[in-house]
């Protein structure tokens, strides 16, 4: 007895040490993961937060009919061809009277975004009585001015503005003629060559249409396939073959699906390029294995006693599946679907192949309009030379992450509610 | 402690010997006794509800039931007893074709519910299961409300067109199952929230809500405590007034308490079937006697 105890005691210390080491490894692994996450978030938020605001410059603008070449603001054609840049140029010249040389004038005109002209046009369309009047307006600053105003002392030395421009902006800033506002264009426009006018609404809509197509196609197809394989399919070699292939499909690199989409859906069936419909179909192919596998697991998890009970009462196979198996498996199926959709939402490679990487300014109105999606937009912006696009890309990543988190939260809430009901 | 062990050993030995002897006897008997006369007692009755002849069940090449023939009379409670693996549950599951769900299972013989051939290829199994209901070993209420559990059968078979009719069926079924007083105030609470015994009575209510002619029960009390078991047994006696009941049980006391006739199964064969009293007091067959006196099983 005592000998055994002694032996046990000896090994006990070693066992506890091993346990502690094991625990330490686990804590370390989680620590590394958390650190990576924190780093990622600080980097993205640090870079991206400035993109959510933008600077405006205050200028007294005269809606001069002659300069604008607009005699009747109710005439849409005249409105569209109006020379609003001229009015802004005049306003800037009035504000900084000393500027004479062509070079300096051009530098001065670069302070205001080219998008400001459209804002003037829209104001004139709203209120035609503005013609000939002078108003003090806040106009969108150019992206380099924006960057300069957002930068600290040290960063300002690297500004792309020349010395004179820097002096003008500093003067405006000192006299309170600049202000920081929420970047509305980020959420109300599509892509643009000018960072201050570029928005992610086009990409969000593109993603939305693509996701709708993916969900509408992949969920019913995936669930139907899973139900058939689990409940109705005869157990033979052919069924085994299909099962193996579904599992293999889950491991196919996503770009292959893009090539397939390009060759078959666009090439063979002649659907247009760059549209969310094709993107959705391609992502459906990619998502299907995930949904089928998780749906089958969910169906398998339904206790056989429930099936027996229903069958014992005289429910047909179909009724057993519809009344009992599907409702009980639904939470698991939904989880699978949402995980699949989250994968699809973040997918870039297959969409590059089918042309959703094009530069598209117009907002898509439906799944048949050319569009891009959020991850591709991030890829495009991260690849752009202008410095401002860097923070825009980070802002877009934040929006994408927000969508993903919302989707996952929704999945969890949905699952909880459905589970409670049953 | 050591002395106790030593005392135990020979006792165990004799038990084993008795068991071996019984099994050898049984093997010898099945070899000697020609089929189908092996069944002793009175397996047949006049004007039966279910008439089962030469029933054989195969799992692939494995024969689980060897030529069982018996009758189940009208409003009779028949209990099927026997050691584990003797095929009594398999036999029971033939009676409403629950074995259909097992691909490798093949059933031969002539099985009739009154004049209806159970294995007639033209017979719709859905219709059959509406006439022959089943209660399972483990209480398996649907994860729905108590009301919906009972109303499920009538709903899928279209037995009630109006809400009023359905309410009535639910109430009557719950009353028959002796559950009404306990649940009438919470009909819309989930059925899975009831206690084990209540759940099993809910399952019985669910089964009789379809007004079946025969109710099959596969060890309905094996997952319940003695008090719940007593309630179910009482219920079975009451139900026999309106239904024909076949019950598989591991408890010989239960068979003795609830059934009119008892069938003893051994290794896939029906050894003896007699009035319950006869089986438990004057068993005709040695194997039956060996089983009910606890020499094996």
Structure description:
The complex is a heterodimer of chains A (422) and B (297). Chain A has 422 residues and is mainly alpha-helical. Chain A has 3 domains: 3-49; 51-193, no CATH class; 201-418, MetI-like (MetI-like fold), CATH 1.10.3720. In chain A, 68% of the residues lie in helices and 5% in strands. Chain A is built from 19 helices and 3 strands. Chain A has a 3-stranded antiparallel beta sheet with strand order 2-1-3. In chain A, helix 13 packs across helix 14. The longest helix of chain A has 47 residues, at 2-48. Chain A is extended and about 95 Å long. Chain B is α/β, with parallel strands linked by helices. In chain B, 41% of the residues lie in helices and 22% in strands. Chain B has 11 helices and 11 strands. Chain B has a 7-stranded mixed beta sheet with strand order 1-11-10-4-9-8-7, with helices on both faces. A 4-stranded antiparallel beta sheet of chain B has the order 3-2-5-6, with helices on one face. In chain B, strand 5 (105-113) and strand 6 form a beta hairpin. In chain B, helix 4 (146-157) packs parallel to helix 7 (196-208), helix 5 packs across helix 7 and helix 7 runs parallel beside helix 8 (226-239). Chain B starts with a helix and ends in a 5-residue tail after the last helix. Residues 1-14 and 31-36 of chain B have low confidence and may be disordered. Classes of the chains: A mainly alpha (422), B alpha/beta (297). Chains A and B meet through helix 15 and helix 16 of A and helix 3, strand 7, helix 4 and helix 7 of B.
Write the layout of secondary structure elements.
The complex is a heterodimer of chains A (422) and B (297).
Chain A: H1 2-48, E1 53-62, H2 65-68, H3 76-80, H4 84-95, H5 102-109, H6 116-126, E2 134-140, H7 143-150, H8 153-156, H9 163-174, E3 178-182, H10 184-188, H11 201-232, H12 237-249, H13 254-268, H14 276-300, H15 304-312, H16 317-345, H17 349-353, H18 374-382, H19 387-421
Antiparallel strand pairs in A: 1-2, 1-3
Helix pairs in contact in A: 1-19, 11-14, 11-16, 11-18, 13-14, 14-16, 15-16, 16-19, 18-19
Chain B: H1 2-32, E1 40-41, E2 50-59, E3 62-72, E4 77-81, H2 88-94, E5 105-113, E6 116-117, H3 125-131, E7 132-135, H4 146-157, H5 163-176, H6 180-183, H7 196-208, E8 214-218, H8 226-239, E9 244-248, H9 252-258, E10 261-266, E11 269-275, H10 276-281, H11 286-292
Parallel strand pairs in B: 1-11, 4-9, 4-10, 7-8, 8-9
Antiparallel strand pairs in B: 2-3, 2-5, 5-6, 10-11
Helix pairs in contact in B: 4-5, 4-7, 5-7, 7-8
